[in-house]
């Protein structure tokens, strides 16, 4: 579902208004993220493409050069935790716990976006450990949901979305495949709500530090 108030056009106009309040790397992040969000908004018929464009928009907002052995998923979690702390109006909280309760619950209960499922399949592991981990992860997600732990819930959601991203970007799925439509549709709905809200929050928080960008304008 598109947010009629937070479109790429409105966010771009807001960026022009507040650009001088932000450091140059943040302005570049926001400009790039909004450009990819605009492309995602124009993509109405291809859910796979729309998901990828939305993920690029999100990636533009959070990514920085890797530091030592820090995994990308850890960068992502730190970024989300920082935003939740700064979100005084609890915009992200409302999205996670009210507006998109359905797609988020469906996503986290889908084993096909749970990486340990695929690891067990690749390693021919018939021990059932992935199922135990899956049940435990889903219980943790429900606990976070019930207790209003927005940062923990977002970390779980984006962990699943990251697996879906890997499937699509690394050629692990067929374009427009009939076997993964549910998770792609849920992923699109979730990102269409969260990405504009994240960009809006970044626009309103010029003092937050996101680190350097990996590919600056030269």
Structure in words:
By secondary structure, this protein is mainly α. It has one domain. Helices cover 68% and strands 0% of the residues. It has helices spanning 8-18, 24-42, 47-62, 72-86, 91-99, 101-108, 115-122, 129-147, 150-169, 181-204. Helix 2 (24-42) runs antiparallel to helix 10 and helix 6 (101-108) crosses helix 10 (181-204). It is globular. The model has no long low-confidence stretch (mean pLDDT 90).
Features:
about 220 residues
Compose a concise summary of this entry:
This protein has 218 residues and is an all-alpha fold. 68% of the residues lie in helices and 0% in strands. It has ten helices and no strands.
Return the structural class: mainly alpha
Roughly how many Å apart are the termini?
37 Å
Characterize the biggest β-sheet. Answer: none
- SSE sequence, one letter per element: HHHHHHHHHH
**Domain module tally:** 1
Radius of gyration: 17 Å
Could you estimate the helical fraction of the residues in percent? 55-70%
Mean pLDDT: 90
Uncertain segments: none
Number of strands: 0
Number of helices: 10
List the helices and strands and how they pair.
Elements: H1 8-18, H2 24-42, H3 47-62, H4 72-86, H5 91-99, H6 101-108, H7 115-122, H8 129-147, H9 150-169, H10 181-204
């Amino acid at each position: 579902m598109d947010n009629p108030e937070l479109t790429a056009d409105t966010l771009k106009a807001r960026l022009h208004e507040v650009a001088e309040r932000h450091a140059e790397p943040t302005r570049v992040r926001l400009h790039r993220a909004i450009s990819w969000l605009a492309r995602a908004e124009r993509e109405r018929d291809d859910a796979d493409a729309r998901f990828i464009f939305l993920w690029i928009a999100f990636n533009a907002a959070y990514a920085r050069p890797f530091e030592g052995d820090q995994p990308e998923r850890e960068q992502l979690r730190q970024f989300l935790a920082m935003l939740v702390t700064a979100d005084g109006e609890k915009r992200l909280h409302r999205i996670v716990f009210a507006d998109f309760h359905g797609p988020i619950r469906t996503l986290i209960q889908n084993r096909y976006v749970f990486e340990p499922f695929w690891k067990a399949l690749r390693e021919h592991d018939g021990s059932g450990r992935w199922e135990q981990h899956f049940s435990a992860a889903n219980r943790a997600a429900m606990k976070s949901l019930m207790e209003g732990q927005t940062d923990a819930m977002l970390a779980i959601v984006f962990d699943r979305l990251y697996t879906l991203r890997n499937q699509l970007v690394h050629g692990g799925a067929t374009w427009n495949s009939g076997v993964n439509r549910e998770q792609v549709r849920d992923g699109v709905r979730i990102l269409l709500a969260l990405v504009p809200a994240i960009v809006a929050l970044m626009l309103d928080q010029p003092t937050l530090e996101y680190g350097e960008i990996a590919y600056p304008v030269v």
